[in-house]
Design goal:
The complex is a heterodimer of chains A (about 375) and B (about 325).
Chain A (H helix, E strand, L loop, with lengths): L3 H4 L6 H20 L2 H26 L7 H18 L4 H5 L3 H21 L8 H22 L10 E2 L6 E2 L2 E2 L3 H23 L2 H11 L1 H6 L4 H23 L5 E2 L6 H14 L4 H32 L4 H4 L2 H19 L3 H15 L10
Antiparallel strand pairs in A: 1-4, 2-3
Helix pairs in contact in A: 3-8, 3-11, 3-12, 3-13, 4-6, 4-7, 4-11, 6-11, 9-11, 12-13, 12-16, 13-15, 13-16
Chain B lengths: L1 H22 L4 H30 L6 H19 L5 H28 L7 H22 L17 E3 L2 E3 L1 H23 L1 H11 L1 H6 L4 H27 L8 H12 L4 H28 L12 H13 L14
Antiparallel strand pairs in B: 1-2
Helix pairs in contact in B: 2-6, 2-9, 2-10, 2-11, 3-4, 3-5, 3-9, 3-10, 4-9, 6-7, 6-9, 7-9, 10-11, 10-12
The chains are: A mainly alpha (about 375), B mainly alpha (about 325).
């Protein structure tokens, strides 16, 4: 490496470039390699990556703990669905299939501004008190504003049916899991690159300064209120994108998709993956969704097996569902206890081991 | 000083208005306030447990709702066993005592198994551990007990309402108020006058200093969790008597948060005042809403604001008093 510019490059060596190419080929070929239920699992992973991206930004890079991110995802989702269904689009836009992409942009901005609204208290409060405000965002937005008011645009029921084929991206009608998968893949790649670049800019450095010590950052001349609000805006923006993309894979948009547990789950995702790491975000989302899926499969299979073999113990079989909750809770606890640095740290260790091999001792100090 | 004068004046004025309203026969809002006080005492009890954990070990506990759930179910099982051998009142009292004991044990075990290792970890990890605990406990509760709504059979408290100065009150509320007050007094005197309580106070004041004076932080943390389980368990039991026992009573765990924010996270007195204030606010806001809905019919009134009102109030309140009424204002240095 000769220059700082070269040091800061995304892909520094031919090996990394080759790795990236292989990864892209694998990701593109995924729908042909696995069965359709695993494609929808991949869609869910992508959804979690996008949604938790904002959480990672706020918690991992700006130090503002948020426990109500599902509210902003809900804003994005409902905004997009309602706009596609009810906005008086001119005919040529609908024909060109631009209604959905345009609504995505509007949804992202709407979620961003909604997020700034609830980020305003961060100018005065921090720590636990800020956690409470973001939680309030959840309770104000989803059960009150969205479920009781916004959905009246559609009808009395807060649940909005979106049959397959409602959403069109240009000439492509999104009506199968595979199409949703490719769409989400493109979106995730764009958003992760955008986020990575944002973190290398002045704004990103300011966020990290605020995270590390906000008072010190202020004395260094960082306008902390402004940058905190920008962080909330960008986090909400990503959340809005996540929400508006996810409605294309649903057949019914309902407030239950934006439960408070989802917000908690996304915080869990970044803690499991590693706080302050984009790689960690990907690892965490994959881990959480896969664990859920595997538990689901295990519980379904075993209850089917038990139901067939021992029909007299249905009272045990019917309780297996709750074992899933237990196992998930226990998984989070054990992970945080025994792997507090997250999966990203493990990955880094592993990478270093191979990079330094066979001289593994050189890496120990760092 | 002036602060206190103004607050007492406001309090005096509102009590006077209520008394006047009762005297002239307008009992709608005074009744709501009274119910609010009664329900608020319940919130105060659970918030007390929450504040204790926070004060002693700095853990923001999001599993409080599941702790109330466990308490409710344990007490109901004990009650249904005891009630076959003795009159309901004694059976219920024994059930509550049993809930307290089991709560204490569970609290100690939880602290030892899951939270002892988290001492010194970042705040967020500890919060997420309590979230994991809430998943775990929810699963365990529903694996052991039924998911449908259950109620205490036969009813513990007589169904005949109490009349007081023109206000009608269910007996359950009165007794729950009495029980909460008794328990709160018991807990507070425990902190003030016993050796263990004093060491808990010392630990919450300055952990380092307490350690150097020979207070065992380990036991203090364990005790805090034990007491929190006890308080939440009794809260769950009482709420189960008021409104039936199902998963929705774990909502109490979330309502605790506006309460403690109002009072200040580090203040026991704040939890009590905050509990009663939020109870009043919730009931008056909801009653006022249905009043308005009757007076001005419109489809645009929200269905209910019982859950949202405390949260909205909390956000607005935080903007004006970021440390609650009596929370510690930390002065930070770089």
């Amino acid at each position: 490496m000769q220059s700082y510019l070269a040091e800061q490059k995304w892909w520094r060596t031919p090996f990394i470039k080759a790795k990236m190419v292989v990864m892209v080929i694998l990701l593109v070929a995924l729908p042909y390699l696995v069965s359709s239920q695993w494609v929808s699992v991949a869609v869910n992973i992508n959804y979690y990556i996008l949604a938790a991206l904002g959480v990672q930004l706020l918690i991992g890079y700006c130090g503002q703990i948020t426990l109500g991110h599902a509210a902003f995802v809900a804003v994005g989702g409902y905004c997009s669905a309602l706009m596609v269904l009810h906005f008086p689009w001119p005919k040529f836009i609908v024909d060109a299939g631009l209604a959905y992409p345009l609504s995505m942009i509007v949804a992202a901005f709407a979620a961003g501004f909604w997020s700034v609204l609830f980020g305003l208290p961060s100018a005065r409060v921090k720590g636990f008190y800020l956690i409470m405000t973001t939680m309030a965002a959840q309770w104000v937005t989803v059960p009150l504003v969205i479920a009781q008011y916004v959905t009246r645009i559609h009808g009395d029921n807060p649940e909005i049916p979106v049959p397959a084929g409602t959403f069109k991206l240009g000439p492509v009608v999104i009506d199968s899991d595979t199409k949703v998968y490719y769409f989400s893949l493109v979106l995730v790649v764009i958003c992760l690159i955008a986020m990575g670049n944002l973190l290398r800019s002045r704004v990103g450095r300011a966020w990290v300064a605020i995270r590390d010590n906000d008072i010190a950052a202020e004395t260094m001349g960082v306008n902390i209120v402004r940058y905190k609000l920008v962080a909330f805006f960008v986090a909400g923006f990503f959340a809005g994108l996540a929400g508006s993309f996810y409605v294309s894979s649903l057949s019914l948009v309902s407030p239950e998709h934006y439960d408070w547990k989802e917000s908690l789950m996304w915080v869990g995702v970044i803690l499991i993956g590693g706080v302050g790491s984009i790689q960690g975000l990907v690892f965490g989302s994959t881990f959480v969704i896969l664990v859920f899926k595997l538990l689901d499969v295990a519980v379904t299979q075993s209850s089917m097996f038990l139901g067939d073999q021992y029909p007299q113990i249905t009272w045990v079989t019917s309780k297996l569902v709750f074992l899933k909750d237990c196992a998930f809770g226990l998984a989070i606890i054990l992970f945080l206890t025994y792997e507090p640095n997250g999966l990203a740290y493990r990955y880094w260790q592993l990478k270093n081991y191979f990079n330094l091999w066979p001289f593994s001792y050189t890496g120990k100090g760092g | 000083m002036w602060n206190r004068v103004i607050w007492s004046f406001v309090l005096f004025l509102s009590v006077a208005v209520l008394v006047y309203a009762v005297a002239v026969g307008k009992t709608y809002y005074p009744q709501l306030v009274l119910i609010g006080v009664m329900v608020g005492s319940l919130y105060a009890l659970v918030a007390l447990g929450w504040v204790l954990i926070y004060k002693c070990s700095g853990v923001l506990n999001l599993a409080m709702g599941e702790l109330t759930l466990i308490g409710g179910y344990v007490c109901m099982s004990l009650y249904s066993v005891f009630v076959e051998k003795m009159p309901p009142t004694y059976a219920f009292m024994l059930g509550v005592v049993g809930t307290l004991i089991i709560g204490m044990i569970l609290g100690l075990v939880t602290e030892r198994l899951f939270l002892r290792k988290m001492i010194g970890e970042p705040i967020l990890s500890v919060i997420m551990v309590t979230v994991g605990l809430s998943f775990l406990y929810k699963g365990i509760v529903f694996m052991i007990w039924e998911t449908g709504t259950q109620s205490f059979e036969p009813a513990v408290f007589p169904l005949r309402p109490v009349l007081f100065a023109g206000l009608i009150m269910k007996q359950v509320y009165v007794w729950s108020f009495v029980a909460c007050i008794v328990l709160v007094v018991a807990f507070v005197s425990f902190f003030k006058y016993t050796r263990w309580g004093l060491s808990m106070q010392a630990c919450s004041d300055d952990e380092m200093a307490a350690l150097s004076l020979g207070v065992s932080a380990k036991y203090v943390y364990a005790l805090a969790w034990g007491i929190a389980f006890m308080a939440a368990g009794v809260g769950g039991t009482i709420l189960a008597n008021v409104s039936g026992l199902n998963y929705s009573i774990s909502h109490l765990g979330l309502l605790v948060l506006p309460v403690v924010v109002f009072g200040g996270l580090n203040s026991v007195a704040g939890a009590l005042v905050g509990g009663i204030a939020i109870g009043i606010l919730q009931n008056v806001a909801d009653g006022g809403l249905s009043h308005l809905r009757l007076a001005y019919p419109s489809p645009w009134w929200p269905l209910t604001i019982k859950e949202v009102a405390p949260m909205v109030f909390m956000v607005v309140f935080l903007l004006f008093k970021p440390y609650g009424l009596w929370g510690w204002e930390r002065i930070e240095r770089v």
